[in-house]
## 1
Amino acid sequence: MYKNFKLRVRNKLLNILFDLHFQPRHWVHTVKYSLEDTGMPSQRLLDLTKKAYEFTMENNLESIKSSRMKEGINHIELEQISFFPGAHYRILNGIVRSLNPKRVVEIGTWTGVSSLAILDGALSEEFKLTTFDIVPWNTINHTALIQDDFGVHFEQKLADLSNREVFQEHKDVFQEAELIFIDGPKDGIFEYKLVEYFKELNFDNNPIIFFDDINQIEMLNLWHDIEKPKFDITSLGQFTGTGLIDWIKS
Ligand SMILES: C[S@@+](CC[C@H](N)C(=O)[O-])C[C@H]1O[C@@H](n2cnc3c(N)ncnc32)[C@H](O)[C@@H]1O
């Protein structure tokens, strides 16, 4: 409650300070800076994104929305699944189609809308998505998931990945991954720890890391300091920032 009040005051002050005459539904503060000192995309990231964009144009994910609405599920995140640009779901689905991975890891299940966007893009018979959270999916009262979503292709693991020992227990799942989607708390601590843990892993497949909210103020240092080929694709994704990393061995 105090945090919301503080945010409202901060936004109002910024409106006055920068003479902004609009009040959108949701906004975050950021800093835009020159790219040449922060790292550029690899050819792999450019090609992957080009293909993903084409897939994104072909699939608006409306079918997920309508099938869930038939189950009586309807809320703002589900509504956003079709937004393009502005939300990350469609380009995430496009990246899955473009990469055609067998193993995907998601950090941050929440209502499961991003899980559904990933699952919809799965092409391989051997596909498997492992989604991590600290909260069981079926205790979120507006979850978009149903029990039938789970099986050989989809599982949820409950684990506090900020804890090094807990993360280590799951390291095989990460090492096998070809795509890792990170959408955690963005509290200025969690994602920083995660990147440190990733540096200690021995990845089998040079995974692509899909990072949400990279333009959020708490994420700016993290994104800037990653010393791997990377691509800020915010214009195709979440308005608060979407970034891809080519996690090649250094
Ligand atoms: C922004 S939500 C995920 C939204 C979802 N990916 C989507 O796009 O629809 C962030 C999630 O991260 C989870 N989370 C927070 N701290 C965590 C931790 N230490 N380990 C694992 N998950 C965590 C939260 O419980 C929350 O469900």
## 2
Amino acid sequence: MMPLAQMAEAVLRTADGREKTALSRKLAAEWKAARADGHTPEIGTADPPMHPARPAQPELLSPREVPRRRPGSPQGRIALLHAVAHIELNAVDLHWDIIARFTHIPMPMGFYDDWVKAADEESKHFNLMCDCLEELDSHYGALPAHAGMWRAAEDTAQDFMGRLAVVPMVLEARGLDVTPGMIDIFRTAKLDSAVAALETIYAEEVAHVAYGSKWFHFLCGRDNLDPKDAFHTLVQRYFHSPLKPPFNEEKRAEAGLPPDLYWPLAVAD
Ligand SMILES: [Fe+2]
Ligand SMILES: [Fe+2]
């Protein structure tokens, strides 16, 4: 079996979305099988690209240029699914990137188990969103998408704790806040497969936020840092806007994020 960091790099260097996620799922299955057999596979090292390979479509636009969508219309619903597909493809790369980029920092095997599992689930989520788009006679790449998604990865490329703070504990936690409203939109439109897909995503994302919180707290313990202070400092350093309420306090708590961790960041300076 290839060292894990090299598996991660192979996914990051695959451009097509369906191919990237197929490779991601295949390698995650290999990892899982090796771990279930009691092996301790090699992590190794890799040279992850600063920007992962991506398909020629969708065209990436700055947030201001991405056309506004009205979620009540069929085109608006397609745009919403397309935006989620784009987020999921970025999430696939983000999880493999955290595996490949920080191998110089020794971590327990459980850290790698968690992010391989998260990357596998994001791959499934991307495919679910693509299936829903195709059911509506569209596809991933048919619309422009947000160019800023990889910014968090670039900003935290040198800061492991910053990466954990911003990606799972801010961005993926935000997903917990907004997904129930999206599910309602598709339920109202009676699009059952989109409802089911988003419910799967919603259920599985709680664990991704929890992995972030778990490993962030692990590192704070190892480095003798106060988790709340460290989180506030890192989010202010790397995330360039205040956090946006309303928060899904119940799901955030389930994922290990207490209100006093994020509420102080919700107010602009
Ligand atoms: Fe996801
Ligand atoms: Fe996720």
